[in-house]
Amino acid sequence: MFFVTAIGLVLRRQAVTLLFDYGLDDQAISLTADTLSFLLLGLAGHSMVFIFARAFYSGHDTRTPVLTALLDMTVAISVGLATVGGMGLSGIALGLSAGGWFEATALGLLLWRRTPGAGLESVIRPMLLFAVGAVLTALAALAVVRLTDPLIGPEPGKLVLLGQVVAATAVGAVAYAIYTRLLRIPELEQTIA
Q1: pTM here?
Q2: Is the CA virtual torsion 109, 111, 117, 119 positive or negative?
Q3: Whether 49 contacts 103, CB under 8 Å
Q4: pLDDT for 174 beyond 70
Q5: For residue 106, is pLDDT > 90?
Q6: Are 106 and 75 in contact (CB under 8 A)?
Q7: Are 2 and 133 in contact (CB under 8 A)?
Q8: Which of 44, 11, 16 is nearest to 173 (CA)?
Q9: How are the residues of the chain apportioned to helix, strand and coil, as percentages rounded to the nearest 5?
Q10: How far apart are CA 22 and CA 36, in angstroms?
């Protein structure tokens, strides 16, 4: 999910333009792209919630994931209310992301305390490796966007914009693949297999 977040953050404006440029003005596209960026920041946290919650379900504990989900909602609503005045819809998106990360952290810590032998410590190192890979991915995709922006002009057609998105994503994917290969991170090879 860090990879998707990184690519999404770099290409958020292009994606919003491709999907919603049939009636939105430039300001609405910018606001929607900003909101998308805050939602993307919570993507990895929400993904971890699914994994951690299933660990509790497998132990026949449905109460803990429900309680942490209620805390997630409390954090999301609190942050959303605190930031919506200054940030608009992006503040609500920030609240949703903060809630997701809060719930993932709470579930992870509770699972670690409940089952010390589960090896949750081993989650932190891969997370850091994936985060570094995501930053490299974002930089590679951003380089493609910066190099192609002058070529495609200020108002490119949909097909040209789609080409930029595909090219930036492909270069980012290659950078990520090289990174995982150099560090011998097995997840990419396992996914491909």
Answers
A1: 0.84
A2: negative
A3: yes
A4: yes
A5: yes
A6: no
A7: yes
A8: 11
A9: 85, 0, 15
A10: 18
